[in-house]
Request: fold
Amino acid sequence: MGGKGRTPCCDKSQVKRGPWSPSEDLRLISFIQKHGHSNWRALPKQAGLLRCGKSCRLRWINYLRPDLKRGNFTKEEEESIIKLHEAWGNKWSKIASHFPGRTDNEIKNVWNTHLRKGLASKNSCGDDQSKELSSISSSYSSSSSSASSQLSSGEPSAGTTAEFEHQSNQDSNMSKNQNDYELPNLSIIQEKLDQNLLMEVTNQVRVPVDDAKGVKTLTISSSFSSLESSNDSSSSQGGGILRPDDLVFDFEGAYPLIEDKAVLEIPFECDYDFWNMLDGFMTFQSNPEPLLPQADQTYQSSNLELVESGKWLSYLESELGLEDSTKTNINNQDFAMKDATEQ
DNA sequence: AATGATAGCAACCGCCTCTAT
DNA sequence: GATAGAGGCGGTTGCTATCAT
Reply:
């Protein structure tokens, strides 16, 4: 410990706080993708972000990392969390290390919101709990063979802990060296698609990826809760913020693989106006007001919004030189009109 | 329909640990 | 060994959506 007190990690009056905007997310993603994150403190400045380095790190780890598994925890995962918490207490990062794709923050939240209450209620009816624990134990052992032996007793033995750690090392490649950040392989992408994380593709920013056999395309797709009729509360938070459920990596066609890893690149050095415009766009698009339906207008206005946003992104694509040339002229005209109208 | 209570979760804060000098 | 800087962790807060009255 320092002893003489710590210098603040950043000047809090100079940094932005609160929810991250879509453009900040994209800046961070593209910067890390290109340069890695060897120095979190220096990163915000280098990336042109008015954020504390810690904030960037947290955002990346908890939200933007490409290997994150989103969506609800499965029953098995929840049961595993309960058992691991029994063994280790609030060692969230340690627990999280056994759930590839899950973050300590996520697990902590799940524990605090769901599991703790569930257990508390079970504790009130004594016998049920021991029954429950034994069922959890057997369930766990069937679902996680390498970890199965340690869960029947309260404290983990040295051997069983070692087993967990062994498994953890095997599972969490990302945590080995996050500077060598790797994108998930295609099976993970497919898994996300299977989980319906790609609910509705409303916009696409295509990024060409060089490939010896030609240029493939990565599509960053975003869908917005305001355009969805989903009752899922998790998708309804965040307002104009681009959420991971919204921002998914989608692949068109085969993707270049180097040593089984997909490689892609988002152009970081685009015009700063691009990011700012993107911010404005995201806010504009996610603004529910134009979409809040007057009954039969719902469908029409939503589709209008989709069309407009599609035009907008096409415009972006053309600005970035990523466009399908056949669409460019029309879209530029459309956007210019829209732009003039809004201004 | 309005209001208050509750739930869920992203983000922040402050402390701890590790490492370089 | 002392010190400072940086990353990491766990606790907590605050915002938003949903539910209940």
Remarks:
- Residues 1, 6, 17-20, 52, 54-55, 58-59, 62-63, 105-106, 109-110, 112-114, 233-234, 237-238, 241, 243 of chain A lie near DNA strand B (CB under 10 Å from a C1').
- The CA atoms of residues 100 and 173 of chain A lie 9 Å apart.
- Chain A has two domains: 75-171, 186-342.
